[in-house]
Amino acid sequence: MTDHLADYNRKDAKERFVFLRNSLLNADFNFQPSGWRYAGDVQDLKRGPVRTQICNEEIVLFKTATGDIVATQGRCPHMNAPLWQGKVVENSIQCPMHGRRFNGRNGACQSHGSDNVRCFPTRVLGTHIFIAADANSAPVFPYFDEAPHTAFAYGRAIYDVVNVPWYLVLANGFDVSHFPYIHGREVLGDSGPLFKGHNRIDIQYALRNTSQLVTDRLLRRLAGDKVQLNYRVFNGNTVLPMTIVKDKASYIWIDVQPVDQRRTRVTMIPVMRVDRQPMWHRYLNGVSLALRSVFIKHFFTAELPYIENIELRPTMLSHNDLPMMEFLHWLKQQNPAVVEAKGNTKLIPLQAEMAQ
Ligand code: FES
Ligand SMILES: [Fe+2]
Predict the structure, then answer these.
(1) What is the DSSP-derived secondary structure letter of residue 32?
(2) What pTM does this model have?
(3) Distance CA 171, CA 174 (A)
(4) Probe ligand 1: pick from 58, 72, 76, max atoms within 8 Å of CB?
(5) Is the pLDDT of residue 334 over 60?
(6) Which CATH number fits domain 2-28+141-337: 3.40.50.300, 3.30.530.20, 1.10.10.10, 3.40.50.20?
């Protein structure tokens, strides 16, 4: 289904608004979205297994003798010992406590006739490791439309834990009316379309850079004031924004992981296309990606003071909020409990909020 923002000026927009507001009145975002979660860097596995955490669950990550990157449940089924303190033996992880060995390919226990461990599907992008949030199913791996994953280079990951509910971090890109105030970007009339698919939702904006920030003024002088922003959310946890200024595209991979109902871990990876560049340019890619990291960090950190502890208040929403409401309605349907009814497995819910 595709809508243009301009469509919201039609008469039936009022009906849509009432429908979405009612949908959000009883929305429950207290769940772990499915999707591919950022889990760490391949370099970190050089010295042996490491601990990571996905959806409040401890996971052990390791590299097998044949070079596969494996993620299994982090605790041994025998007596709950931490497997990340164990060692890799060929293609298995050996528990540090009584030596049970678990095969990295299928989690099978190869000794003592113990229970197996659960394995999570993994993917590697550059040196970044991603784990499917659900051990039993691997959702579509997020992608930019422009080219395959191998056509891009990926910079260092930067992350932060922010005091914003995870679904509102994702919704930020659909919150049209904050662009002029926070980002100095006027939204032009021909913005849209809004595309809603099963695994992803996209919105495209035509923007005018009106910001007084030094970097934005410089950008305006060099490349004009028109900015195209294509904002995409995959599987309820990955954001892939693409910005085009004067035919030059820049990309970011953003991983959003709920910590609890109010806090969110946001990991950002700068991405650049490298498949069509001249050979000599490759020497500059490291510098270019590092500069992008600085810019991205600056851009997102600047917004944080203004969005801390924001809340979704369905009864307070207005017509301007329609794209964001469309997004949240779509996200609500990504709730694994709902998906389960269609035949998939269920993820564990979000941890109850910690005592204050
Ligand atoms: S706790 Fe792992 S083998 Fe006993
Ligand atoms: Fe924003």
Answers:
(1) P
(2) 0.90
(3) 5
(4) 76
(5) yes
(6) 3.30.530.20
